[in-house]
Amino acid sequence: MTSRERRDSTSCVRDRNRNGFTLLELLVVIAIIAVLAGLLFPAVQSVLERAKKVQAKNDLTQIVTAVNAFYTEYGQSPLVGTVSTPDTTYGASGNNSGALFNELRAKTSSLNTRQIQFISPSEDATQTSPKGKIGSDNQFHDPWGNAYVIRIDADYDNQVSNPYNSNTGAGPDKIRQGIIAWSVGKDTQIGSKNDKNFANSDDVISWQ
Fold first, then answer.
1. 163 prior amide bond cis, ω within 30
2. In which domain, by residue range, is 55 found?
3. Number of independent structural domains in the chain
4. What CA–CA distance (Å, rounded) separates 26 from 82?
5. Domain for residue 78, yes or no?
6. What digits encode the pLDDT tens for the residues 52-95?
7. Cα dist from 150 to 36, 41, 157, 179, whole Å
8. Is residue 18 situated within a structural domain?
9. Helix (H, G, I), strand (E, B), or coil: what is residue 152?
């Protein structure tokens, strides 16, 4: 090999070394990516939670609309199971809401004699608490997997009790509606962690 060829070979090796990444450079790039991912993660989580709340609000609107449509059709509310006055509550804090949704979905006909389908949410019978769907328990679950809670005016005085403390952003003690519904949110409990204060909670409600 001539001296010129040796020089050309050495030059090629240097060019390859210059074009490659050292281990230190790769570690720096990885560290930067990790920092950026750490900064973006809370923002992404926040966006996902907002999307879930929007979905929960839409579901609650469908539930209220379905119960009101049932009342319009039959002249009575779909009160099933153990009925208590003045209000009957279904879901996480009351009767299992499965029988209620079976009537609203025309799965049973004890009250829904004309077999009208008032609501048709997605269903996953393989899970007890599927997120955003009807589960094997026939209850309608919110995007966090909790059963929606429904409170119906059982004595037909067109008002139901507010499940939250009054004057906390969730309205007065009595809600002037025939039905209300709510989701307990990500923390799985009504109100904030310390009390039933709606203003500081992650709950989603139908009446606002």
1. no
2. 23-205
3. 1
4. 66
5. yes
6. 999 999 999 999 999 999 999 999 999 998 999 999 999 976 78
7. 42, 34, 17, 7
8. no
9. strand
